[in-house]
Amino acid sequence: MKTMTCRQLGGACDLELRGDTADEVIKAQDRHLREAVAGGDTAHEPALRDMKGRWKHPITGMGWYKNTKKEFAELPEN
Ligand SMILES: [Zn+2]
Question: Which of 10, 17, 70, 73 counts the highest number of beta carbons within 10 A?
Answer without folding.
Answer: 17
